[in-house]
Amino acid sequence: MRRLCELLSVHYPFIQGGMGNISSPVLASAVSEAGGLGTIGTGTLTVDEVELLLLDMKKRTKKTFALNIPISVTENLKGMCELAVKHAVPVVSLSAGNPAPYIHYFKQNNIKVICVTASVKHAQKAEKAGADLIVGEGFEAAGINSPLELTTMTLIPQLVAKVQIPVVAAGGIGDSKGFAAALALGAEGIQMGTRLIATKESPYHERYVERLLEADDTETVIVGRSVGKVRRILKTAYADRLIQAEGSGIHPDDFEAMTDEEKHRIGAVEGRLEEGFINGGQISGLVKSIPTVQELFKEMMEGAEQIYENQMKTFKRFYLKH
């Protein structure tokens, strides 16, 4: 954990996942102020739109933060990379595409580079290209997912065994138990998205938060397999429409239109759950409270420490008896 915290200049080994077009400087700055790495996601926003978010973010916090750039969906990729340099963004997170062509540009401008991956092969390539940190994202995660469908439990230890740079676990983690489990797998920190939706600093619509709080263990669904666009979302009336459309053999372009970032904004920000979807990871069933980000981080650190102390005592008692 210390290596990760020193690398990112953060107090806690917690990274906020990129939230695309619904990124909010309010929540991201709260994460950074609480000691984690807050993140602004570019999604499909324009360079000008993202610049406004960055300016707002820099007004709200002087602490370290990141800019997540999803390579395959960013229209003006060159302009977005230049924007990160223009505003001296401390950390850039690259996802949804091959990061290799862009890593050197950021590194020569003193920007740390995180690469989000879902396989050992891609993690090794990112490390070879100069990445500072790997986020291994399991299939439990919310939003766009890898078609490989590897789970966090199986992915993280394999990544740790094959790369030398720090590995952060993402997907299905949102409490002290999940954090402790990630550390046991060899991760040096975690990345969270869904859990941060239900915090006091969250700017998202109350219907989104309520839907998350009432969710049980089976309240997320995968859509897009039939068109090669795997995404995990919460069950809603709009999710039912997507499932029905897939069952009827929807064209990939039509599916793309039904699941674009605007449809996500309609659901998450405006709360129109009949007209837009809301992302949700499998952690959804464990989210039952709305703490501040600071309270969440403190509970996760203290809870994980207690778990390890208790488990060590149990292990020693068992070992001595045998």
Based on CA atoms alone, the radius of gyration comes out at 19 Å
What is the terminal-to-terminal distance? 33 Å
Structural class by sheet pairing and helices: alpha/beta
* Uncertain regions spanning at least 5 consecutive residues: none
Identify the strand order in the major beta sheet: 1-9-8-6-5-4-3-2
Can you describe what's shown?
This protein has 322 residues and is of the alpha/beta class. It has 2 domains: 2-203 and 291-313, Alpha-Beta Barrel (TIM Barrel), CATH 3.20.20.70; 206-283, no CATH class. The protein contains 14 helices and 11 strands. It has helices at residues 2-8, 25-33, 47-60, 77-86, 100-107, 120-129, 152-162, 176-184, 194-197, 206-213, 237-247, 252-258, 261-268, 293-321; strands spanning 14-16, 38-41, 65-70, 91-95, 112-117, 133-137, 143-144, 167-170, 189-192, 220-223, 231-234. The strands form 2 sheets. It has an 8-stranded parallel β-sheet, with helices on both faces. Strands 7-11-10 form a 3-stranded antiparallel β-sheet, covered by helices on one side. Strand 4, helix 5 (100-107) and strand 5 (112-117) form a beta-alpha-beta unit. The radius of gyration is 19 Å and the shape is globular. It starts with a helix and ends with a helix. The model has no long low-confidence stretch (mean pLDDT 94). Keywords: Flavoprotein, FMN, Oxidoreductase. It comes from Guptibacillus hwajinpoensis. One of its GO terms (molecular function) is nitronate monooxygenase activity.
Keywords:
14 helices; globular; 2 domains; alpha/beta; eight-stranded parallel sheet
